[in-house]
Amino acid sequence: MQSSPTSRDVALAAGVSQSTVSYVLSGKRFVAPDTRARVRAAMDELGYRPHASARALKSSQSRILGLLVPYHERTDTPGQYRYIVSLAAACRRRGYDLLVISGEEGVEGMRRLVGSALCDGILVMDVLDDDARVDAAQDLHLPSVFIGLSHNAEAVVATDTDFEAIGAGCAQRIHDAGHRRALVVNPASEHVTPMGFIRRFDRALESRAEELGLALDSIAVPRGFMPTHAALCDYLARPDHADAFIVAPSTSIDDVINALLTEGLGPGSEVSVIGAGGSGDSSHTNVDYACYDSDVPRVADTAVGLLVDQLEGALPLAGREPERIAPVFHEGVSLRSLTATHDTNVTSFTR
């Protein structure tokens, strides 16, 4: 009597490993569509029928999504917390739980998480402009979404706030307030400056400023009021200093405003100040300042939705334009003489 075909026979007929056949049956790992089709065709040709227990594995997803979120001493903890809370809520709405993996393991952390099979897919935060995890996600054929855009973001599925719109908008609003020179206050952090969103903001800001004829000076300040105050005092000692200030992402606009007030410069009267990000619920200045901010709940919902679409087979793992989410803008009173602006990719909010 001829014995029934086994998964080993299917693997030989399809030209794949036996573990690949198991992954096709269980759904535990991503298998390329053409490979999956070859395995299915070999199963049909051989008349292979998996055991009921193997078929059951197909529906044994963990219903857990992993979140890789590096944590270091310069982490913007309140900002990070906003994303984690919104991502957890977005997961729950879709019937998933969120497993947070902190640390700075990079690619090895991603490989460890995949190897543990704890999660059905992975969300990746703190994305660098040149991020090795992009190549790792491709190599692992991993259902994942990057919350942040690297220079090669099209190689994976990614979404983020439209920091290009923020950079261009900051230049435009300062120009429309009547200024022709501005100081850009950047973060002095080896962890932050390589981030993709910083590079995208910088490029858009400089490009729009050049179009407008807006001259830009720049300084980098460490976190905290005292070093921010010291750096601004050094700059203000220059006879040709600007009277408009653009506070870059991941730089405390509260510290900048408080430092200016200490020097007798009132935002909205003597000087103009605009932020590329707000301070959420942790503001520590009395000035109602003008600022852009990320629409965090929408970014989180978009990221989780894209990942679930991959898991359900409705979306490929790569090869799509990143989804940029429009920022929100709070007008405040820190711009000296704000007139009509030209932002088309922002919404407004009230702090």
UniProtKB/TrEMBL annotation:
Pfam families: LacI (PF00356), Peripla_BP_3 (PF13377). Residues 5-59 form the HTH lacI-type domain. GO terms for molecular function: DNA-binding transcription factor activity; transcription cis-regulatory region binding. Keywords: DNA-binding, Transcription, Transcription regulation. Gene3D superfamilies: 3.40.50.2300, lambda repressor-like DNA-binding domains. Coiled coil: none annotated. CDD domains: HTH_LacI. This is DNA-binding transcriptional regulator, LacI/PurR family. It comes from Actinomyces ruminicola.
